[in-house]
From TrEMBL:
One Gene Ontology CC term in the entry: extracellular region
Active-site annotation: 190, 236, 414
Protein origin, superkingdom: Eukaryota
One of the GO biological process terms: cellulose catabolic process
Protein name: Glucanase
E.C. no: 3.2.1.-
Binding site for substrate: 149, 151, 281, 284, 320, 380, 408, 412
Organism classification: Eukaryota, Fungi, Dikarya, Basidiomycota, Agaricomycotina
Amino acid sequence: MFKFATLLALASLIPAFVEAATSPIYGQCGGTGWTGATTCATGSTCVYSNPYYSQCLPGAANPTTTTTTTTTRPTTTTTTTTPGGGTTTTTTSAPGTTSTPDAGNPFVGYQLYLSPYYAAEVQAAAGNITDATQKAKALSVANIPTFTWFDVIAKTSQLGTYLADASSKQKSSGQKYIVQIVVYDLPDRDCAAAASNGEFTIANNGLANYETYIDQLVAQIKQYPDVRVVAVIEPDSLANLVTNLSVAKCSNAQTAYKAGVTYAMQQLNKVGVYMYLDAGHAGWLGWPANLTPAAQLFASLYKSAGSPTFVRGLATNVANYNALTAATPDPITQGNSNYDESHYINALGPMLSSQGFPAHFIVDQGRAGVQNIRQQWGDWCNVAGAGFGTRPTTSTGNSLIDAIVWVKPGGECDGTSDTSAARYDYHCGLSDALQPAPEAGTWFQAYFAALVKNANPSL
Ligand SMILES: *[C@@H]1O[C@H](CO)[C@@H](O)[C@H](O)[C@H]1NC(C)=O
Ligand SMILES: *[C@@H]1O[C@H](CO)[C@@H](O)[C@H](O)[C@H]1NC(C)=O
């Protein structure tokens, strides 16, 4: 009895204590070495990002099991009497169906949804810039749409939050919206580098876990058939299968990567997601010797997946720094006639077409505003001197290119420069990489400030 009373007394103290130790929305709430609050402000949940970082994200906790909610599209059933007296029944989905993609460029006529997550990061970052001109420029970045990376399964429930928001904005404005996402959680991810190793391993049920991850994205998308979703599928993965099979982790991952990407294409196709498979960049698959094997790999995977109709093409230059059209070739590109993304795309496009793969592209220009800043073409980590680039647009000047997009959210770090960190990659310690740099995916304030300052066109 006494014990019970003590517990009650203690319990009454707890709410006050919890409230005091609550992290704000988008604040950190966990990770190695974190000693601050591990509970989140009302309306947000602590979401695991990686062993070093958990963050308070808006919305409820992620469903632990795949949601079984399904939204059935209205259908029309037509019964026709055939000459022989039998009947055939055709069931077609009502307008708004996602069973057949729109012909043409999926970006045209749509507004790009602004990720509230990135906008909040940018606003917080701008708050730390003292120079009034730079601060105003920094704030304007919050209005430029970027893709949202779903890099851990714990974040998948965020997609539903965004889709619900886009759906309501769409209803109130009459303007149609696209939510742009990056599907990025293959087992043994980032097989040729160290900074972005993922949460799933092939050895530990990784492919099945990946399928659950895809299923959770699909379950959310299914609930908002009115909102268009465009996805970049698995940055670096297939490009690594073209050029890096000599790396043991890549050759071991080959079967799982192919199975995972096939599953992603097939399932996302069912809910009408317009997909662009990642195709590296000019300095990777754009080398003449790599073009044919690349086209063959994309086409064979696509065909074996059943030629999913919502696969629209390829995404290039994701998180990279290449110009779409370089005024003059950067000296580091010497030896490659495809020295910028336009040359790469113009060379690859016809090869894809002849193999039966849809030759449409989107190109990341988010951090490509400044050229000739790298020592080697392969340098990819937090390259110093980079600036925000051409804004997202469908005016691309190239019929193969659907849109210039910002895939990499500028300011989020590519990888840590801490040589003792488990995910340290030497590229992040090179002399052309800005340092000190925090863990991949976390905010890198000095880098963001430089992207703002060096933006071209200027902000
Ligand atoms: C911004 O400033 C606040 C207050 O000085 C500080 O706690 C926070 O770490 C800073 N954030 C960044 C990203 O620099
Ligand atoms: C992966 O392939 C690229 C392009 O050929 C090459 O530059 C890079 O060094 C390779 N990575 C590893 C770890 O071998």
